[in-house]
């Protein structure tokens, strides 16, 4: 079987492709993490707004506000 010589340029290109691939997966992982956090914050804000509206309605109904 013939042994082939792998050029240093090919090795460099291969190494760069591997690094880029790992970088993309890491970026995608971080992107998913921050999207999840943003979704959780939006849900929390929505719940807080609803609470404020309910409290505001209760105060107005009882005549506490002038």
From TrEMBL:
Source domain of life: Eukaryota
Full protein name: Uncharacterized protein
């Amino acid at each position: 079987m013939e042994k082939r010589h792998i050029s240093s340029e090919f090795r460099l290109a291969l190494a760069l492709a591997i690094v880029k691939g790992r970088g993309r997966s890491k970026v995608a992982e971080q992107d998913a993490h921050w999207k999840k956090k943003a979704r959780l914050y939006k849900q929390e804000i929505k719940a807080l707004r609803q609470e404020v509206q309910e409290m505001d309605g209760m105060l107005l109904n009882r005549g506490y506000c002038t």
